[in-house]
Amino acid sequence: MLKELKSFFYLIFIFFFFFLSIKYYFSDEYEKKSNRKFSNLDEDLTLYSNKLKILKNDTNNIIQYIDDNDKKKKKKIYHFWNLLKKND
Questions:
Q1: Contacts (Cβ under 8 Å, ≥6 apart) of 30
Q2: Could you tell me which residues come within 8 angstroms of residue 24 by beta carbon, excluding any fewer than 6 positions away?
Q3: Distance between CA 81 and CA 79 in Å, rounded?
Q4: Which of 2, 24, 62, 75 is deepest in the core (most CB within 10 A)?
C-alpha cells in the first residue's frame, strides 16, 4: 500500500511539474519578456562593445622558427625480413 502511494505521489508530482512548466512557457507574460529581451539585445551589444577596452598587440615576432633538419640524424630503418637475412 505504501509503495503504491509513493508511486502515485511521484506521478502526480511529475504531472504537475510538466503542467506548470508548459503553462509558464506558453503564457503571455513569458512571451512579452522574451520579446523585450530580444528587442533589447542589439542595444545591449552595442553598449557592451563600446565599453570594451582595446589592448595593445604585444605578440609581434615572438615565434622563432628553428630549421634543424640538417642537425637531425637520420635513423637507420630496419625491416623485419632484412634482419632475418643478416642472421643467416
A1: 24
A2: 30
A3: 6
A4: 24
* Neighbouring C-alpha atoms within 13 Å toward the C-beta of 70: 2
Helices (H), 26-75: 28-51
pTM over 0.85: no
Q: Encode pLDDT of 57-87 as tens digits.
A: 888 888 877 766 655 666 667 777 777 776 5
| Amino acid (one-letter) located at 33 | K
Nearest partner of 26 among 18, 14, 37, 38, judged by Cα:
18
Q: In this structure, which amino acid lies at residue 14?
A: I
